[in-house]
């Protein structure tokens, strides 16, 4: 969300050189040795700023783009400097990290392009031609920094101004953790199925103005060019190898909640909704089976099963408490068992 600028006791910076601090949401330390660590989930590799004339909230206008230079990082707080042109009107500072937006912003015209156009253009996608390409790299030795977004409304950018803080960044991906609470069942593999390979860098915005909706709506805003990969042939395999807690390994783009569609011809129907397939067995010598798992929320107060969406910056914990009966003989059968 947007907050007003607050004064600081930090000395004013030189002309046009502005000191800015952003905060990354906290994340729990993963327990598995080869997954992303807390520091890696919070890593900031590059910083871009987009400045808007916000004097008219219904039609904010692009002013300039600037690169930030990181000065320091302490845990979830990142401080950097940027050379910004002074303004005389209410100004919005947008911060985008861990994605190269130069090719996007060069198409924007200062004092002409509106915020709606900018926000629609700020997308990120994972290229490739196979499931191994579309898996988000989360290995502790070969991880990919997660794109993030934040913004703040200030009164103006002054030639000499105090430190700007209070900008909260939001990761654009959802994280899925597997917790096996039963010792009788051994999880061998987990497959991510019917996932997207593209998304907006920022969270859902108002269609007419490009203003970020705060708080986040339940339904994520998904670009038309979402790069959705459906079916068992595109399933991404994660090797769990019996670990009881499989954390900070599975990251996914936002996706809508499943829908009980009678014809199953919609992108969010049970047939094509994002889901997991869990491969496992009872006991060390049991037969391996595959189980289809749809994302749902446990709520005893509801008389029905509530499907949930994959939302940016959320950690969904899939806890296995009991496995009754046998599953399916293959990934293909499990995927088709919607």
Model description:
This protein has helices at residues 38-41, 102-105, 115-121, 131-134, 331-335, and strands spanning 17-23, 47-53, 61-74, 77-83, 91-97, 123-125, 138-139, 142-143, 148-154, 164-168, 170-171, 174-180, 185-193, 198-200, 236-239, 245-252, 275-282, 289-294, 296-297, 306-307, 315-320. By secondary structure, it is mostly beta strands. The strands form 6 sheets. The chain has an 8-stranded mixed sheet with strand order 10-1-4-3-2-5-9-11, with no helix packed on it.
Please give the alpha-carbon distance between the first and last residues. Answer: 37 Å
Order of helices and strands: EHEEEEHHEHEEEEEEEEEEEEEEEH
| Biggest β-sheet: strands ordered side by side in the sheet | 10-1-4-3-2-5-9-11
Helix content: under 10%
Question: Helical stretch count?
Answer: 5
**Strand segment tally:** 21
Shape, principal axes of CA atoms = elongated
In angstroms, what is the radius of gyration?
22 Å
Strand content: 25-35%
Structural class: mainly beta
Oligomer: single chain
The biggest sheet, with number of strands, parallel, antiparallel or mixed sense and barrel status, is: 8 strands, mixed
- What is the arithmetic mean of pLDDT? 88
